[in-house]
Design brief:
- By secondary structure, the chain is an alpha+beta fold.
- The chain has one domain.
- It has 17 helices and five strands.
- The chain has a five-stranded mixed sheet.
- Helix 4 packs antiparallel against helix 10.
- The radius of gyration is 30 Å and the shape is elongated.
C-alpha cells in the first residue's frame, strides 16, 4: 500500500471553493511575501526580520486557527454567495471543542474542590485537632508522657501530614506552582502575541501563505473583533483556570495526610490542564491538527527589537521563577488556612516515629556489599536477607 505524504493529505482535504479562497489570499499577500523573512523600511532606512511565534497545539490553538483562517474562508465564500458546508464545519468544530473543554475544566475544578479537597481538609484538621487536644494542656504546654502514650494509629496519621516536613512540603508546593505558572505564562505570551499582531483591514489580510510551502501559514494581521474574541475565549479562560487550579492544588497538597500522596496528588492535579490536549487529539482530524502545528504568528521587527525581545524572554523567566517562590512563601506562611503555622513543630516530635518506620530491616551500604563479595563471594550476599528475618520459636507438640 502506498503511503500518503503530508502534502498530499493536505491537498486532498481542499475543496474547489477552499482552493479558490486560498488563491485569492495568495494574490492579496503576494506583494508582502518578499517581506516575510527580511524587509527594508525605506522611510526609516532600517532592516527588518520576521519574528515567528507558535500557537499551542491544543483546543485553544485549534480555535485560534479557526478564527484566523476558517473565518476568513467563510467570509470570502459568503461574499461570493457560495458558502461551503465543509468550511462551516471547519469553523464550528474547533469552537465547539474549545467550549466543551472550558466546560469540562471548570466542572472538574468545582467537583475536585467540593468532593476531593474539602474532605481532605476536614480530615487533616480533625487529625491535628485530636493531637492538640490529647498531647497539650489548656496553656499550650506539650506533655511528653501524653505523646508517648498517644495512639500508634494517631501518631501515624499525624506524622504523615505533609506540612509536618517543612522542606519537603515547600519543595513540592514550589514544583506545583511552577507547573501552573507555566500555563499562566503560556497564556500571557499568547495574549502578547495577539496584541502585537498588526490590525487587518480585511479578513483576507489575516493569513499569509508561504509561496514555497503552501502548508505553511502565518498569522500576519488580525481584525480587531477577532483579537477581542481570541482574548476573551482563549487567553482569559486559560489564565483564569490556571490560577484557580494553582490555588486548589496548593490547598489540597497542604491537606495531604501521606508523603506518598503528596507526590501523587501533585501529579494527579495536572490532568485538568491536559483536558484541552486530550480533546484536541481525540476530536480533531489529523489534517486539521497538522495545520495547527504549521501555523505561526509572524510580524516584522528590527534586529535591535529582536535582541531586546530575547533579553526580555530571560527577564520573564527570572520574574516568573521569583514570583513562584514568593507565592509559595506567602501562601504557606500567611494565606493557607488548612493548619496553623505551628504544625511544623510536630515534625520534631515525629522524628523518632519516622526513624522507626523508615529504616530498612536489611539495609546495607554499597561498601559493605563489596566487602562481603571479597570475603565470601556472591554466595555471601545471596544469603544476606535470611539473617534479617530470623525464624521464630514455634513449638510443635504431638
Amino acid at each position: 500500500m502506498r503511503s500518503i505524504s503530508a502534502q498530499e493529505s493536505a491537498e486532498a482535504g481542499k475543496s474547489p471553493l477552499i482552493e479558490e479562497t486560498l488563491n485569492e489570499v495568495r494574490r492579496s499577500n503576494q506583494l508582502r511575501r518578499s517581506q516575510t523573512m527580511v524587509s527594508y523600511d525605506s522611510k526609516r532606512g532600517t532592516r527588518k526580520i520576521a519574528m515567528e511565534f507558535d500557537i499551542p497545539e491544543d483546543a485553544y490553538g485549534a480555535a485560534m486557527l479557526a478564527l484566523a483562517k476558517d473565518l476568513t474562508d467563510l467570509v470570502t465564500e459568503y461574499n461570493k454567495k457560495a458558502v461551503s458546508l465543509l468550511t462551516i464545519t471547519r469553523l464550528c468544530f474547533p469552537m465547539v471543542t474549545l467550549f466543551i473543554n472550558l466546560g469540562m475544566q471548570f466542572v472538574c475544578l468545582y467537583y475536585i474542590s467540593w468532593y476531593v479537597v474539602e474532605p481532605s481538609v476536614h480530615h487533616v484538621q480533625e487529625t491535628y485537632g485530636r493531637y492538640h487536644w490529647t498531647v497539650f494542656d489548656k496553656n499550650g504546654t506539650f506533655h511528653k508522657e501524653q505523646w508517648d502514650n498517644y495512639s500508634p494509629d494517631e501518631k501515624s496519621n499525624l506524622c504523615q501530614i505533609a506540612m509536618t516536613n517543612e522542606y519537603f512540603y515547600y519543595t513540592v508546593l514550589l514544583l506545583w506552582t511552577l507547573s501552573c505558572m507555566h500555563e499562566i505564562r503560556t497564556g500571557q505570551q499568547l495574549g502578547g502575541n495577539i496584541f502585537r499582531v498588526p490590525r487587518a483591514e480585511t479578513f483576507g489580510d489575516q493569513i499569509l501563505l508561504d509561496e514555497t510551502n503552501e502548508s505553511q501559514l502565518f498569522i500576519r494581521a488580525l481584525k480587531p473583533v477577532v483579537k477581542c474574541v481570541m482574548i476573551g475565549i482563549v487567553v482569559f479562560p486559560k489564565i483564569i483556570i490556571s490560577f484557580f487550579l494553582m490555588e486548589l492544588g496548593m490547598r489540597w497538597l497542604s491537606a495531604t495526610t501521606s508523603f506518598e500522596e503528596l507526590v501523587m496528588n501533585a501529579v494527579a492535579m495536572t490532568f485538568v490542564t491536559q483536558i484541552d490536549e486530550l480533546l484536541y487529539h481525540f476530536a480533531l482530524p489529523a489534517n486539521y491538527r497538522k495545520q495547527v502545528a504549521d501555523i505561526n504568528f509572524s510580524h516584522d521587527i528590527t534586529p535591535e527589537e529582536a535582541e531586546t525581545e530575547s533579553w526580555f524572554a530571560y527577564v520573564r523567566s527570572v520574574f516568573y521563577g521569583c514570583l513562584s517562590v514568593v507565592i509559595v512563601y506567602l501562601y504557606a506562611s500567611i494565606f493557607q488556612d488548612v493548619l496553623p503555622g505551628s504544625v511544623h513543630e510536630a515534625g520534631q516530635y515525629c522524628a523518632d516515629w519516622q526513624r522507626e518506620h523508615t529504616i530498612s530491616r536489611c539495609h546495607d551500604s554499597l561498601g559493605g556489599f563489596f566487602r562481603k563479595v571479597l570475603h565470601g563471594g556472591f554466595t555471601a550476599t545471596a544469603t544476606h536477607g535470611e539473617t534479617c528475618y530470623p525464624y521464630g520459636e514455634a513449638y510443635h507438640s504431638r
